[in-house]
C-alpha cells in the first residue's frame, strides 16, 4: 500500500483484545474537514475509507476525498475516483481466460524486453473451479461421482493450465473442482468482512472489498463485503495493481418493513425486489437496504437478495454489518479474533447498523415484505415476476408469443370442469389441452408446457438453508402422500458447498430428495450457467420434431433465452421447494397454487398446501442440523482437492509452454505486433454493419456459455481439429481458446439479427447473402472493412462475460451504437478498445431507418474526450447520407487512456515493462 498523505488525519489505532490495528477513521476525518460524512450510506463509507487509505496525491487526491462529502449535497456525483479492492475472486469460465491473458502478457513482456516476473497479481486472487461440471448423470446415487469423473476427462487441459498458474503466479490460489461455487465459498470461508494486512511493522485493518469475474459476486454484500462483478479484463487490471476508475455512484435506499408470512421464501422476496428495482431503474447505481424489516431477515436471506443485484441492474445490493453478520461469522466457524475485530472496527467506523439510522440516499423506495406472495419469474427474464396463482395463465400467454401466435391455449375443460392430460390416463394432474406427442420407447407423451428440467441449482438459493430444508420437507411430505416426479422431468441437486450436503443429511431430508430424483449431481453452477446436460435423446427428438415449447424450472437467477438448454424455450426461476413441486406437477400448465399436484394412495387429490412445511418446522430443523464444526471441517483444507486434482502434473516455468494441439488453451493474439508506443487512434471510415439488435441483448446472446452446435463455425472448427461431437464440451469451458470463442461470438441459437428478420442464430447479411456472423466478419477483415453494431436498450445485460467484448473486438468491430448499455459490458468494450456510443433519448436505429445495408463513418475518434457528442455519418443504400449525433460512452479519462493504448491490458503491460 502506498503511504497515505492523510490530509484529514484519519490514521488511528484500534485496540481489540490484546491486538492493535492501524485503521483510517471516518469519524476522525469528519472532525478534520469531511463534515457530515457520518450520514453517508454505509456502502459509500466503504468507498470513502478506501480513498482515505490510498490518498497519494496522484491516483487519489484530497479533492477526490472531499467529493465524497460534496456528494451529500447533491446525492449524486460526476466526480471520477480511483478505487482499489482488497482482493479478486474468479470462477473458472472467466478465470481461465484471465490466467491465459496473464500468461500471454508474460510472453509479450519478454518480447518487449521486460521482466515476466512483473506480470503477477498484486492483490490476493482466489479462483474457484465451479462452472465446468455438467448434469450428464442424474437421479442415481453415483451421479456426483460420474459427473466429476467426466468433468476431469473433459477439462483436463484446462485444469493442467490452472495448476500451472497456481504454481507460477504469486498471490494466486485455486479452489479445486467438486468443492462449491465461488459465491458460497466466498460467503462461508473466504470473506472476512474486515480484511487485514501486515506492512511496515503494522497490521492495517480495512473493509473487505473485492471485484469478481462473476456478476453474482454481489452475493457477499449480504455480509457487508462491498463487491461486484467485473469482466475478466477489468479484474486482470485490478489484480495487476491498477485502480478501478469509477464515478462516485448514486445510492438508492431500499427500505424494508414487516416480516415474511408463513410459507413465503426468500426467493419470493428477491423476485419481488428484482421486479421493483428494474422498474425503478438502478443500472450503474448502488442499492443499499435499510429499515426495520432487516431485523426479520437472516444473513442468508440478505445474501439471496444481494446475489441478484445483476438481475435488478445495480452495481451491488449492500447490507451493513449488524448482529446477524456477527452471528453468521460465528456459526460458520470464523476465527474468534476476526469476529471481535469485525464488531469493534464496524462500530468504530460508524459502519455497524443499530437499526435507527437514516442515511442520506440519492433516492428511496420501500417494500412491506409481509405483502410478498409466492412467485416465479420467466419465461426468459429474471425481472418478469409472476405470482404463483397466475403462473399457468401467464404461461399460456407466453406460449402464444413464443410460438409466434396462432395456437389456441384456452382451457378446454373435461366434464367435471378440469382439463386433464390427454393420453396419460387421468393422473389427477391438470394441464391445458395441448396435443401430446408420443415419445419413442416411453410410456408417456410430451406437450407444450411440460417441465423437462427441474433443477435445484447453486447460486441464489443454496447458501440459504431455509429454502433447501424447505425443499427437503416438501419432498418428504410428497413421498408420504405417494406422489412421484413425472417421468419426463430431469431432476438435479447441485449445492453451492459441501456443507449443504452435511446438513441435508443430518436433517434426514437428503434421502427424501434422493427418492424423488434430486440426488447430488455436483457442486457447481450446472443448470443456471447452461450446464444442464443433454435431455434424453428421444425426449429431445420429440420436442424438436414437433416444435414443442418445453420448460425448465430452476432455483437460479438466470433464465435468458438459449441459456439453460437448447431444447428448452421457456425457463422459470423458483425457490427450491417450488422446483420440487413443479417436478411433481410436470407442467407449467398446472396452476400449482390451486390445482392438485396428483393423487395420494387412496385417489384423493393432493394440493401444494398439503405438502408445504411451516416456517417453524423449517427453523427447528435448521437449528438441529447445522453446526460450526461442519464449516470448519469442510474448509480446513479447501485448496487440497480430491485425488483427481492431486494427480494432475504441473509443467512449465515462469512462462507457459503453449501446447500446439490444444483446443482448450491457446496464446491469444491481443499482443501481436505490440510496441512500447501505441499507434494513434484512427477515425472509422465506411464501416459495414455486422448486426442490428433489439432490446435486452444479453452477454449470453453475444457470447454463449452453453453447448456448441455441430454445424456452427465453432463446431466446424472443433471437428476439423478431430474433436468428436460428444467431446465438444461447452463454449464456457473453451474460453481459453480464442479460435473457438471468436467463432462463438453472436452464436447463441436464439439471437435474432434484425438484418435477417425471422431467423434465429448467429447469421448476418453480406452483399445480400446470408452468412454466419463469424464468416462474414472474416471476409470483411480480409477486405480491410471495419465493422459496427447497432442495438437497442440494455445492450450487454447479464453475466460479466469478458468474451462478449473480446470476441466483438477480434471480429473487427470498432464501435457499438446502442440506446443504452449495461454497466459491465460497456466497461468491457472499452477495456478491449471497442468504442461504445448511445443514441439521444427517443432515437434508435429504427427511427433513423437503418436496415444494415448502410456504410457508417465516425469522425473525430482521434480527438475523443469522455462523454463527448460525436457525429456518425450514415450513407444509405440509395446514396443519401444522414448525420446522427451520438454520445461517446467512454466515461472517464482513464478509460480514454485504455482505448488510446489499444485496450486495458496493453496499457497495464506497457506500464509494467516501463517501470
TrEMBL record:
Catalytic reaction(s) noted: citrate = D-threo-isocitrate; (2S,3R)-3-hydroxybutane-1,2,3-tricarboxylate = 2-methyl-cis-aconitate + H2O
Protein family membership: Belongs to the aconitase/IPM isomerase family.
Name of the molecule in the record: Aconitate hydratase
Gene: acnA
One MF term in the entry's GO annotations: aconitate hydratase activity
Keywords of the record: 4Fe-4S, Iron, Iron-sulfur, Lyase, Metal-binding, RNA-binding, Tricarboxylic acid cycle
The protein's required cofactors: [4Fe-4S] cluster
GO BP annotations listed: tricarboxylic acid cycle
InterPro entries in UniProt: AcnA_IRP_Swivel, Acnase/IPM_dHydase_lsu_aba_1/3, Acoase/IPM_deHydtase_lsu_aba, Aconitase/3IPM_dehydase_swvl, Aconitase/IRP2, Aconitase_4Fe-4S_BS, Aconitase_4Fe-4S_dom, AconitaseA/IPMdHydase_ssu_swvl
EC numbers for this chain: 4.2.1.3
Species this chain originates from: Stappia taiwanensis
Pathway entry: Organic acid metabolism; propanoate degradation; Carbohydrate metabolism; tricarboxylic acid cycle; isocitrate from oxaloacetate: step 2/2
Matches recorded under CDD domains: AcnA_IRP, AcnA_IRP_Swivel
Domain Aconitase A/isopropylmalate dehydratase small subunit swivel residue range list: 716-841
Amino acid at each position: 500500500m502506498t503511504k497515505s498523505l492523510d490530509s484529514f488525519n484519519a490514521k488511528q489505532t484500534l485496540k481489540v483484545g490484546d491486538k492493535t490495528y492501524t485503521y483510517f477513521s471516518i469519524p476522525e476525518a469528519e472532525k478534520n474537514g469531511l463534515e457530515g460524512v457520518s450520514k453517508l450510506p454505509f456502502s459509500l463509507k466503504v468507498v470513502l475509507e478506501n480513498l482515505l487509505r490510498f490518498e497519494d496525491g496522484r491516483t487519489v487526491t484530497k479533492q477526490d476525498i472531499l467529493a465524497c462529502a460534496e456528494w451529500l449535497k447533491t446525492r449524486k456525483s460526476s466526480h471520477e475516483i480511483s478505487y482499489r479492492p482488497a482482493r479478486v475472486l474468479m470462477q473458472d469460465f472467466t478465470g481461465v481466460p484471465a490466467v491465459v491473458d496473464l500468461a500471454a502478457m508474460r510472453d509479450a513482456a519478454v518480447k518487449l524486453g521486460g521482466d515476466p516476473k512483473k506480470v503477477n497479481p498484486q492483490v490476493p486472487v482466489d479462483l474457484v473451479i465451479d462452472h465446468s461440471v455438467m448434469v450428464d448423470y442424474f437421479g442415481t446415487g453415483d451421479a456426483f461421482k460420474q459427473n466429476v469423473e467426466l468433468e476431469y476427462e473433459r477439462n483436463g487441459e484446462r485444469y493442467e493450465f490452472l495448476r500451472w498458474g497456481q504454481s507460477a503466479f504469486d498471490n494466486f490460489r485455486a479452489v479445486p473442482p467438486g468443492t462449491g461455487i465461488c459465491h458460497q465459498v466466498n460467503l462461508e470461508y473466504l470473506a472476512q468482512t474486515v480484511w487485514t494486512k501486515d506492512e511496515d511493522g503494522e497490521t492495517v485493518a480495512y473493509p473487505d472489498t473485492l471485484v469478481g469475474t462473476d456478476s453474482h459476486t454481489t452475493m457477499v454484500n449480504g455480509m457487508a463485503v462491498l463487491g461486484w462483478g467485473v469482466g475478466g479484463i477489468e479484474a486482470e487490471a485490478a489484480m495487476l495493481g491498477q485502480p478501478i476508475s469509477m464515478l462516485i455512484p448514486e445510492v438508492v435506499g431500499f427500505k424494508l418493513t414487516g416480516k415474511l408470512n408463513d410459507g413465503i421464501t426468500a426467493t419470493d422476496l428477491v423476485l419481488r425486489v428484482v421486479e421493483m428495482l428494474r422498474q425503478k431503474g438502478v443500472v450503474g447505481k448502488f442499492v443499499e437496504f435499510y429499515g426495520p424489516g432487516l431485523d426479520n431477515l437472516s444473513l442468508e436471506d440478505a445474501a439471496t437478495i444481494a446475489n441478484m443485484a445483476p438481475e435488478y441492474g445495480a452495481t451491488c445490493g449492500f447490507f451493513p454489518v449488524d448482529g446477524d453478520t456477527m452471528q453468521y461469522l460465528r456459526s460458520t466457524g470464523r476465527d474468534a479474533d476476526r469476529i471481535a475485530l469485525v464488531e469493534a472496527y464496524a462500530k468504530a467506523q460508524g459502519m455497524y447498523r443499530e437499526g435507527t439510522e437514516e442515511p442520506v440516499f440519492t433516492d428511496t423506495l420501500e417494500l412491506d415484505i409481509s405483502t410478498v406472495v409466492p412467485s416465479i419469474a420467466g419465461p426468459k427474464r429474471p425481472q418478469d415476476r409472476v405470482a404463483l396463482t397466475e403462473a399457468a395463465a401467464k404461461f399460456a400467454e407466453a406460449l402464444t408469443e413464443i410460438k409466434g401466435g396462432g395456437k389456441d391455449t384456452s382451457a378446454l375443460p373435461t366434464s367435471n370442469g378440469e382439463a386433464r392430460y390427454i393420453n396419460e390416463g387421468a393422473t389427477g394432474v391438470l394441464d391445458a389441452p395441448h396435443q401430446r406427442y408420443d415419445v419413442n420407447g416411453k410410456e408417456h407423451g410430451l406437450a407444450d408446457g411440460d417441465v423437462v428440467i427441474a433443477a435445484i441449482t447453486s447460486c441464489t438459493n443454496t447458501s440459504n438453508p431455509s429454502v433447501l430444508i424447505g425443499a427437503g420437507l416438501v419432498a418428504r411430505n410428497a413421498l408420504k402422500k405417494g406422489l412421484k416426479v413425472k417421468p419426463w422431468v430431469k431432476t438435479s441437486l447441485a449445492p453451492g458447498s459441501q456443507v449443504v450436503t452435511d446438513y441435508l443429511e443430518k436433517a434426514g431430508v437428503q434421502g427424501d430428495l434422493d427418492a424423488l430424483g434430486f440426488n447430488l449431481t455436483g457442486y457447481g453452477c450446472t443448470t443456471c450457467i447452461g450446464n444442464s446436460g443433454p435431455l434424453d435423446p428421444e425426449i429431445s427428438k420429440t420436442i424438436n420434431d414437433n416444435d414443442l415449447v418445453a420448460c425448465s424450472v430452476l432455483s437460479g437467477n438466470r433464465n435468458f433465452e438459449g441459456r439453460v438448454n437448447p431444447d428448452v424455450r421457456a425457463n422459470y426461476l423458483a425457490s427450491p421447494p417450488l422446483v420440487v413441486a413443479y417436478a411433481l406437477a410436470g407442467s407449467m400448465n398446472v396452476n400449482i397454487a390451486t390445482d392438485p399436484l396428483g393423487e395420494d394412495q387412496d385417489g384423493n387429490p393432493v394440493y401444494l398446501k398439503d405438502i408445504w412445511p411451516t416456517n417453524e418446522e423449517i427453523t427447528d430443523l435448521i437449528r438441529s442440523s447445522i453446526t460450526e464444526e461442519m464449516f470448519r471441517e469442510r474448509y480446513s483444507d479447501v485448496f487440497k482437492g480430491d485425488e483427481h486434482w492431486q494427480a494432475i502434473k504441473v509443467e512449465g516455468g515462469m512462462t507457459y509452454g503453449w501446447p500446439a494441439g490444444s483446443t482448450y488453451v491457446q496464446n491469444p493474439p491481443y499482443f501481436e505486433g505490440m510496441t512500447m508506443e501505441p499507434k494513434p487512434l484512427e477515425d472509422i471510415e465506411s464501416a459495414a454493419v455486422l448486426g442490428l439488435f433489439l432490446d435486452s441483448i444479453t452477454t449470453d446472446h453475444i457470447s454463449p456459455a452453453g453447448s456448441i452446435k455441430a454445424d456452427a463455425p465453432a463446431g466446424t472448427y472443433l471437428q476439423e481439429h478431430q474433436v468428436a461431437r460428444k467431446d465438444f464440451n461447452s463454449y464456457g469451458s473453451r474460453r481459453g481458446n480464442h479460435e473457438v470463442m471468436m467463432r462463438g461470438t453472436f452464436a447463441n441459437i436464439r439471437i435474432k439479427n434484425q438484418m435477417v428478420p425471422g431467423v434465429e442464430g448467429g447469421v448476418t447479411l453480406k452483399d445480400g447473402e446470408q452468412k454466419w456472423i463469424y464468416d462474414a466478419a472474416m471476409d470483411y477483415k480480409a477486405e480491410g472493412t471495419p465493422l459496427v453494431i447497432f442495438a437497442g436498450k440494455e445492450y450487454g445485460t447479464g453475466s460479466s462475460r469478458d468474451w462478449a467484448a473480446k470476441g466483438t473486438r477480434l471480429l473487427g468491430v470498432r464501435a457499438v451504437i446502442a440506446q443504452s448499455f449495461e454497466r459491465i459490458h460497456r466497461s468491457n468494450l472499452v477495456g478491449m478498445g471497442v468504442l461504445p456510443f448511445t443514441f439521444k433519448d427517443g432515437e434508435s436505429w429504427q427511427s433513423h431507418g437503418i436496415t444494415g445495408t448502410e456504410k457508417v463513418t465516425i469522425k473525430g475518434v482521434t480527438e475523443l474526450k469522455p462523454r463527448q457528442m460525436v457525429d456518425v455519418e450514415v450513407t444509405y443504400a440509395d446514396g443519401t447520407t444522414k448525420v446522427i449525433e451520438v454520445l461517446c460512452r467512454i466515461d472517464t479519462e482513464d478509460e480514454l487512456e485504455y482505448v488510446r493504448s489499444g485496450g486495458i491490458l496493453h496499457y497495464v503491460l506497457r506500464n509494467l515493462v516501463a517501470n
